[in-house]
Amino acid sequence: MNTKTIDAKILSRMFLAGAKNLEAKKEWINELNVFPVPDGDTGTNMTLTIMSAAAEVGSLQDPDMETLAKAISSGSLRGARGNSGVILSQLLRGFTRSVRKSSELTAKDIAAAMEKGVETAYKAVMKPKEGTILTVAREAAARASEIAEDVEDLETFFNEVFAHAEATLEKTPEMLPVLKEAGVVDSGGQGLLEVFRGAIDGFLGKEIDYSSFSASGGPAVTKISPQAEADIKFGYCTEFIILLNQPMPEEEEHSFKEFLTSLGDSIVLVADDEIVKVHVHTNHPGQAIERALTYGALSRMKIDNMREEHQEKLIKDAEKLAREQAAQEAEAKAAEPPKDYGFISVSVGKGLTEIFKELGVDYLIEGGQTMNPSTEDMLNAIDKVNAKTIYIFPNNKNIVLAANQARDLTEDKEIIVVPTKTIPQGITALISFVPEKSAEENAEAMMEAVSKVKTGQITYAVRDTRIDDKEIHEGDIMGIGDSGMLAVGKERADVAKETVAAMMDDEAEVISVYYGADIAEEEAEELCAFLEEEYPDCEVELNMGGQPIYYYVISVE
Predict the structure, then answer these.
(1) Reported pTM
(2) N or C: which end of the chain has fewer CB within 10 A?
(3) The pLDDT value given to residue 229
(4) How far from 510 is each of 225, 266, 502, 532, 535, CA to CA, in Å?
């Protein structure tokens, strides 16, 4: 195959094949996350990011390079979630900026675009680390530039670049000790390699069933055309009636609707004293149903796979009603003058969400370690907060980049991202807000307050590994601090106590304990009684957090 150039049609095929290969291998990539906690999500984040762009590319009829570049850049930018997803979106953004004015691409063009992608991605990360997806991308681009001048055909070019990227990935454990300890390569770098692998298959015109990577035991389903599937962003038309245990307050009605908005679109929610009628198009009907069950029993449940059945009239009617409701809400919102300040926070768990509401948060995004909100989620939240200046609290280190990206895409409001990495940091930052201060003064005060917060999170291990010189076995309880593993043991209470002890210092005044969904209040009270006796000079606060996966989130200030 002696091909020297590619056009938009071939590049589109390569991109979609790369996205499909990544999607097929996302669970495997998730398992490469070095921390043995049940929150491996690199594969999921990268897949959701690239599939957002793939949906836009799939909807193009006959793309030229400019329309293709715009679809890839815009789709990945808005769909980006998690650090790995945001970095992938920036790699794609830089690449497409470089090629958008071309009609055909040579090896030199592709090499230059790869270098532009790397440059763009590095700018998005405040403290780049070697041994990550950035390293793999940089080395691949460097190899591409090195051979572009002399290579005879693109097949040879792509294969050599891939081989160098693969060799670089194998070296990542030597660059990051935490990878070496766990005996894995970098998960983000592996994800990027799978995009490259699929793209080369697409270039060669291979017809590959990527789903065979992990055998499926499910029943056969009716296939539809890629074009039709791309047109349907959310695949399940989900309807039900909630028979309320008690009347739903207006505030809770808004909260439930915001949750549904985070899951999909075409939302209709009509409530009275006894029932709530719900309609939503989503890819996760189970999550909508689980939330609904907290309000009462369900009736007239109906879930239709729109990708299979094409229930056009139902879809159009629901979308029309949803647009009418959205227009009415937008009209009411536009009539109100914007307030000076607004707050957006990421939260997970009923108790933590209630705490943020009490602290005056205008819009809460459901998310966290296992469900990173996308840039699009952030932009939707910004749009719904009617304020001149909006503070965003990501409350997770893997969400900060998506928040920054949303900030950079917002032009009509001042967005201040307070880079909180834990829920307690977000709570402390909010408490530090003083309306009389300027936006900059508040941001500075918040960060100063956050710097004094130490956080420990108690969870369980899903596999054997070694972290920070501690042997960890599947099922062990772990206490994870701001900078690493603080405690490992067999009993939750013992690990929680050891974790607090590791965080304590002479200046500590308050210990805050947020217990999770799997912890009984009595058990949490026993822990707090111990802490009060052990640390008599500290005030010990107990809160129902309701968070999943993490038995306790504990802060020391």
Answers:
(1) 0.73
(2) N
(3) 41
(4) 59, 45, 15, 10, 10
